[in-house]
Amino acid sequence: MFIFECDRYPAGGSGGLIISKETNMRRYCQSLLNLSVVSLLLLIASVATAQQMPVSGTVLNEVGEPLPGATVTSLRTGTSKIADLQGVFSFTSLDVTDSLRVSRVGYQTQLVVVGVQGNLVIQLQLAGYNLNEVVVVGYGTRKKAQLTGAVSQINSKEIQTTTHVSLAQSLQGKVPGLQIRQNTGEPGNFDNSINIRGFGAPLYVIDGIPQNDNGQSFQRIDPNDIESISIIKDASAAIYGLRAANGVLIVTTKKGKKGKTSVSYNAVVGMQKPTDMPKMANRAQWAILRNEADINASGIPFFTREQLQEHMTAPSTDWYGLTMKDAATQTQHNLSIRGGNDAASYFVSLGYVTESGLLRSNDLNYKKYTFRTNLDMQLHKNWKGEISLAGRFDRKDMPSAGFYNIFNGTRTALPYAEPYANGNPEYLALQQYINPLSSSRSDVSGYSEDKGKEFISYATLTFEAPFLKGLVLKGRAAYNNNNNQNKTLIKGYRLYTYDPALSDPYIAHVQNSPSKISNGLMDIEAVTLQTHALYDTRIKDHTIGATMVYEQSTYFSRYTSAAREYDFYTNDQIDQAGLNNQVTNGIEENRASQSLIGRLAYNYRNKYFLEYAFRYDGSYRYHPDRRWGFFPVIQGAWRVSEEKFMRNLGPLSNMKLRASYGEVGQDAGAPFQYVQGFSTSGGGGYEFVDGTWLVGASSPAIVNEKLTWFTSTILNLGIDLGFFNNKLNLEFDVYQRDRSGLLARRLVSLSQYVWWYAS
């Protein structure tokens, strides 16, 4: 550091600077300053010249393994070096201020300043999100580049590119091999047909917990709550055992993130309308075709010339236009809060959805309320806890006739028929088949009300063993309660015809007589317990991972219903109906299963992969001697693009060959067929005493002690290709499924002939 004080100088003394009075002080200071600057520049130049030094380093891949073949280029000199088999490179002399560009096909290019450390460690990440993406698989995760099975994944952003009340519809056409067909667009109907590769209904797993409701909970999840969905399409599903023969859909919901709290609000307001609605014939067209039909059949026209002419000029009734609207509204709202720190992270979400139907009566509607709270806590250095609470309440209201019958009425009502008797809106007219106007009004024909409540919870405790690096122990308990209520009122009402010759020209015709009311209640409880032991280790170029899981699940359901007929309708309460012809129903169901799951995975230099997994499943359904099944799968992959001979293939940045082969089970037949007994519900009855009906007992079915599941053997061969640093990705799969052990029905009828032999 140089300091100049040109306005002060000593008068004399040792060590001082003596200047004559004639010296020009300003000129002196300027000369001294110029000299100092020159000295400083010379000093900097000498230091820079002195900082030429040898530089070496190691290039690693995304998992910390040596990455051979990487190109390291000096931006100052343009000199390039190629990393050897151990990922090592070296330069004889580089400037400390130089920058190195490190590149490798299939990886993101990285810039590194040389600095003064001399020995660099540079870790490259896979290019393109597809290869570096973490994919959820059965009881674990894998990077996309490390997958050995046919597994596809879709994330939250891709799901939300379309908006739909049903999650299944939001996935339609976005995942290869996932086939979704919408059976109806009726609000509140979640009956989409979902299958993988055409195999059939898959198993649904939400946050690691297998579900028991054939996808009803899955379709009702708020898409804003989802982090990702994985679709297992091949024998990799064997790790889920007996229920996974048709593949598996794994849903992972969002968790908290460390960092500043973020608040997100999403709203959708939209209109829905049929894209292609068949248009019915008008009155004139119908009359002409009706005449032609009879002429072709018998040669005699249905209408006379005068009647036909009347139909040609008279007004036509548009039953669809009278009953249906052109479009229906839909709204979706979601508010979420996400954040956390080193001690805890959280995700909280609230959702609200409304959807109206196409009925002009506005009596077809659906509403849904959802909440979700996911909390992760670092309890101790080696202990971590997770708690998840989620719930749903939804309600669907509709006329008791049902949308199908109402819509069918708009197809079958004749175009010359009037909707109202004598054109009077106070009197709905009787039709030959169905009057869709009366069926579409809940205040006239009655209503149906469906309410659903679901509560989902799980808690997880994870322990990272300090005494053995890579060992993780985990315990999880999940509880799911699903409650569904239905109330239906089929209300008697009148339709009218008109006869001007009568003193009271409006003639009533009673429909839905007598009025009926029913209540139904289904309550479901499911408990799942899991214990996990996971171990991962790396020995030089070898990575080994092992997983062991014990899983136990129980399921209980209870259904009860009650129905009555009205002597005369008063109000919509079941105890206000009559006491005659009362009907009650009720049934309970218990299920239970135990499973032992194992997996061993091997990875050599992130290039060669081999994995073996199995599930040993026990089911309540079968005979105790035959209720356990073993379902294995072996799979492997080879990242050809990591080989030395594949380094310079132009636009090709990734190439991986995959293969998997395994057995998966699927339940068959009704449970407990090994138990012999009589049925008191399937037999006939007889009135031995007047007014007393005695129910009979049916004979037992043939006992089948050897009943068991059937097995699907699945072979899958695949290749993954990436081009232009994985900006363009292609996947090809060839698969074959063979099923064995399918059930067949046995003929039990007796011969119609009886032969007698006499000796």
Summed over residues and divided by their number, the pLDDT gives a mean of 87
Rg, nearest Å: 39 Å
Question: What about the largest sheet?
Answer: 15 strands, antiparallel
Number of strands: 35
Helix content: 10-25%
Low-confidence stretches: 1-26, 35-50
Number of helices: 11
**What distance separates the N and C termini?**
135 Å
Shape: elongated
Record the strand order, biggest sheet.
Answer: 17-18-19-20-21-22-23-26-27-28-29-30-31-34-35
Class per helix and strand makeup: mainly beta
Question: Proportion of β residues?
Answer: over 45%
Q: What does it look like?
A:
With 759 residues, the protein is mainly beta. Helices cover 12% and strands 45% of the residues. The strands form 8 sheets. A 15-stranded antiparallel beta sheet has the order 17-18-19-20-21-22-23-26-27-28-29-30-31-34-35. A 5-stranded mixed beta sheet has the order 10-15-16-13-14. Strands 3-2-5-6 form a 4-stranded antiparallel beta sheet, with no helix packed on it. Strand 32 and strand 33 form a beta hairpin. The protein starts with 24 loop residues before the first helix and ends in a 19-residue tail after the last strand.
